[in-house]
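Budget justification aside, the reviewers requested a transparent look at the raw inputs and outputs of the sequence design task funded under Objective 1. We therefore reproduce one unedited record. The lines immediately below are the structure tokens for a 387-residue chain.
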């Protein structure tokens, strides 16, 4: 296996290997490739991901000669935080600069003992779901593994979590920030495995979740590479409606997606786990009682828990948030049908950090954001269905 040099570097450091994003196996390959013993990988992993050290000089169980050699050829370089915003409810958003003039966002949501970090996987998203701010920004590129695990590293640093006996602030990670994680497969898998690795962040596999809108071929092979939890962004109980909300459904329809997701869950070593179904409720689009009944019917043979997400509005969207009444009715129908059904509380919307509001600054290669602006200027009406 060869070690890929992550190419987010600027000119001065372009030739240096960024060790931050390397899995244990890739780090072992790196040390072997420079004539060193494999066990160095374990030492360096612990320095970086358990102790938060990004300077080889501080890695004191490594000889001075090797530290100097490492400093010449390698680096531990997290992405740069350009802005940190704190919400009145304790949610913290990090705006992170990536090369090419773009920025991505990471959000830490504290909730009692729990701290959930919402991590981005791509600069923008190519999938263009109709209700998602990230989608409206278009797409620039995949994040490197260093930029993905770097979000966890930065957040841990910002909360003083590194070091022995420090309270763990980040207890859960969800790959629910900007981008579709399964379209950046290798970097996302390496990063999630670092999150769960005992020599790194040591998060339980029940506390790291990948959320996907349904890239079925990638989902089909996910189980060979990780055993993290799975959340499926469904948002509609039938293909006709889902085709409108989540366009990738035209390629991989609901039945195909649920089959693949079920195979993933059944293949997990502790196969009693359930997948989460995410359902964003949009006023008079997918929030009617008949949608809830249809959803209950659709999922009847699949072990799932359902997470309802009230739609979070953003500038470029004419959709409206579900009413409290409609939300309660929808939830009741699912609960009566026997499903564990939770409602995701909106957090951090005063700093645009709620689900689906993450927009960063995408240097859009697809020109989609431009098309949306033009379309908005022309004031096209949104199609409301099912009311
Ligand atoms: N691309 C992946 C992960 C990122 S989106 C996916 O689609 O699953 C994370 C979650 O936020 C998804 O369930 C998504 O549907 C939801 N979401 C997107 N836009 C939203 C909005 N405006 N309001 C509420 N939830 C939204
Ligand atoms: Fe991409 Fe997920 Fe947003 Fe859809 S909901 S556009 S897949 S980030």
């Amino acid at each position: 296996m060869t070690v890929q040099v992550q190419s987010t570097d600027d000119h001065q450091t372009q030739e240096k290997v960024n060790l931050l994003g390397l899995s244990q196996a890739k780090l072992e390959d790196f040390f072997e490739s420079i004539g060193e013993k494999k066990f160095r990988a374990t030492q360096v992993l612990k320095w970086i991901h358990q102790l938060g050290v990004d300077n080889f000089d501080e890695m004191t169980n490594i000889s001075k000669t090797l530290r100097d050699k490492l400093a010449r050829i390698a680096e531990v370089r997290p992405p740069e935080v350009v802005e940190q915003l704190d919400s009145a409810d304790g949610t913290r958003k990090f705006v992170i600069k990536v090369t090419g003039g773009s920025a991505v966002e990471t959000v830490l949501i504290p909730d009692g003992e729990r701290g959930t970090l919402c991590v981005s996987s791509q600069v923008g998203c190519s999938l263009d779901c109709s209700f998602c701010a990230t989608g409206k920004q278009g797409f620039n590129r995949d994040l490197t593994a260093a930029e993905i695990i770097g979000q966890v590293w930065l957040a841990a640093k910002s909360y003083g979590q590194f070091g022995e006996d420090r309270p763990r602030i980040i207890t859960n990670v969800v790959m629910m920030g900007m981008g579709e994680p399964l379209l950046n497969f290798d970097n996302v898998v390496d990063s999630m495995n670092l999150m769960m690795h005992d020599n790194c962040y040591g998060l339980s596999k029940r506390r790291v979740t990948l959320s996907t809108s349904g890239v079925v071929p990638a989902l089909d092979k996910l189980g060979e590479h990780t055993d993290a939890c799975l959340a499926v962004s469904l948002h509609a109980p039938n293909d006709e409606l889902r085709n409108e909300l989540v366009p990738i459904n035209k390629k991989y329809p609901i039945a195909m997606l649920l089959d693949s997701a079920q195979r993933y869950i059944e293949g997990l070593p502790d196969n009693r786990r359930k997948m989460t179904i995410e359902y964003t409720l949009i006023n008079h689009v997918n929030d009617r009682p008949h949608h809830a009944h249809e959803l209950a019917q659709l999922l009847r043979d699949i072990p799932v828990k359902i997470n309802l997400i009230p739609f979070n509005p953003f500038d470029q969207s004419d959709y409206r948030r579900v009413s409290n009444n409609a939300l309660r009715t929808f939830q009741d129908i699912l609960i009566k049908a026997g499903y564990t059904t939770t409602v995701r509380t909106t957090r951090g919307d005063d700093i645009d950090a709620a689900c689906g509001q993450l927009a960063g600054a995408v240097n859009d290669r697809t020109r989609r954001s431009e098309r949306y602006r033009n379309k908005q200027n022309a004031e096209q009406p949104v199609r409301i269905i099912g009311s």
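The first strand starts at residue 17 and ends at 18. The pocket of iron/sulfur cluster (ligand 2) is lined by residues 125, 127-129, 132, 134-135, 179-180, 213, 233 (CB under 6 Å). Computational costs for records of this kind are itemized in the attached budget.
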